[in-house]
Amino acid sequence: MAKEVAVVVTDLVEDVEYTEPVEAIKAAGHNVTTIGFEEGTVEGKHGTKITIDKSIADVKPEDFDALFIPGGFSPDQLRADQRFVDFTKVFLAKNKLTASICHGPQLMIQTGLVHGRTMTSYLTVQPDLYYAGARIEDESVVIDGNLITSREPKDIPAFNEAVVKALA
Prior knowledge:
The chain has helices spanning 15-27, 74-78, 82-93, 105-109, 126-131, 156-167; strands at residues 4-8, 31-36, 40-43, 49-52, 54-55, 66-69, 97-101, 118-119, 135-136, 141-144, 147-150. By secondary structure, it is an alpha/beta fold. A seven-stranded mixed sheet has the order 5-2-1-6-7-11-10, with helices on both faces. A two-stranded antiparallel sheet has the order 3-4. Strand 1, helix 1 and strand 2 form a beta-alpha-beta unit. Residues 3-165 form the DJ-1/PfpI domain.
């Protein structure tokens, strides 16, 4: 059965950390809604144009089965907006599938709900997760229940496999 997957993103996302997982999720038969500050287009760090399907003001976490947070500079911008923090918090609090790669966990840190979770991220975000109370494993993919985290672009194939399996 097709799942509804929310992807939160804004300008300066790491292009392949958005495009490749979204492609894998869609190829597995699931629906993706790309959510940003407002409808329109944002641009990745390397120039990829990404269509924003819905504004954060127009969505509810209850409408989705899973959340995906790509990396780059996008999550740091999103976590400055409480609407994205609150949206993410619902997925973590209700133990709904939440997946992120690279700098994506920055948005999760802002929720206050990473304490006690086992996670990974890009090297420079790992200390932030640690100080927020997460257990860090420096692996290509770390799965803690319905929480899937990954480190960087070279880990995308393993990340995609884990996310698609979890959605099945």
